[in-house]
């Protein structure tokens, strides 16, 4: 939807899927005309479970995903090498599977009630990332100056002009031969520090629950080991 940088489609697509599937991936792409800006893949083996056939009687579930954001990546426009990829955007996406025949059209519109329900769970919050580089060894030799960059989505990407610039890159340095077979950057006592400030949806309620479950698992494992060790 040019020239909008944040397009909203609010569309739903229906397509048949045979189980067990022949292919494992569902590939999605963001297009600008005939040009592919970015792609993402949903692996069915990651979002479904066969259940009793493979997991000794445990119940399985059909392919499902989200609603959550799916990041898209594509080639960097400022790099001549096709292997260099960068963050191109994200799509708020949900995948659900229903048994039966496909008797509806292949394309529809999401009802406003579902849109409002999702939007209530997307409050934005600022996040910060700070990194310290202690050393850079085994780097490729050559006369070109090297630097490191960190980014969170568009934030920190020096090739992206949609976000405010930040101190996300290290100073340029020329690789130095270590006298054996590798090269390194001579930072010595100067350790580069980088920082990126970004704004995303506040999903701390999910992180709090996940951190609580992980802490509980670690506590149970350590308690069981203590009991086995001391009787």
Automatic annotation (TrEMBL):
Subcellular location: Membrane
Keywords: Membrane, Repeat, Transmembrane, Transmembrane helix
Nuclease in keyword set: no
GO BP of this protein: membrane fusion; plasma membrane organization
Descriptive protein name: MYOF protein
Coiled coil residues, start to end: none
Entry's Gene Ontology cellular component terms: membrane
Principal cellular location given in the protein's record: membrane
InterPro entries: C2_domain_sf (IPR035892), Ferlin (IPR037721)
Organism name: Piaya cayana (Common squirrel cuckoo)
Keyword Cell inner membrane applies: no
SUPFAM superfamilies: C2 domain (Calcium/lipid-binding domain, CaLB)
């Amino acid at each position: 939807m040019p020239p909008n940088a944040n397009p909203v489609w609010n569309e739903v697509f229906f397509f048949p899927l045979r189980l067990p599937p022949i292919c494992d991936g569902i590939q999605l792409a963001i297009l600008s005309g005939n040009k592919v800006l970015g792609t993402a893949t949903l692996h069915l083996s990651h979002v479904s479970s066969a259940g009793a056939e493979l997991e000794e009687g445990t119940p399985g579930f059909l392919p499902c995903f989200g609603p959550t954001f799916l990041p898209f990546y594509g080639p960097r426009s400022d790099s001549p090498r096709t292997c260099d990829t960068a963050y191109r955007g994200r799509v708020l996406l949900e995948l659900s599977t229903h048994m039966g025949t496909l008797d509806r059209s292949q394309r529809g519109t999401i009802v406003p009630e579902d849109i409002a329900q999702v939007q209530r769970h997307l409050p934005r919050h600022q996040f910060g990332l700070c990194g310290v580089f202690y050393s850079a060894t085994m780097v490729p030799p050559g006369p070109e100056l090297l630097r490191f960059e960190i980014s969170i989505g568009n934030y920190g990407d020096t090739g992206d002009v949609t976000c405010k610039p930040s101190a996300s890159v290290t100073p340029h340095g020329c690789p130095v031969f270590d006298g054996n077979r590798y090269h390194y950057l001579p930072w010595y006592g100067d350790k580069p520090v980088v920082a990126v400030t970004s704004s995303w949806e506040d999903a701390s309620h999910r992180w709090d629950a996940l951190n609580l479950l992980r802490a509980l698992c670690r506590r149970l494992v350590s308690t069981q080991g203590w009991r086995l060790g001391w009787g």
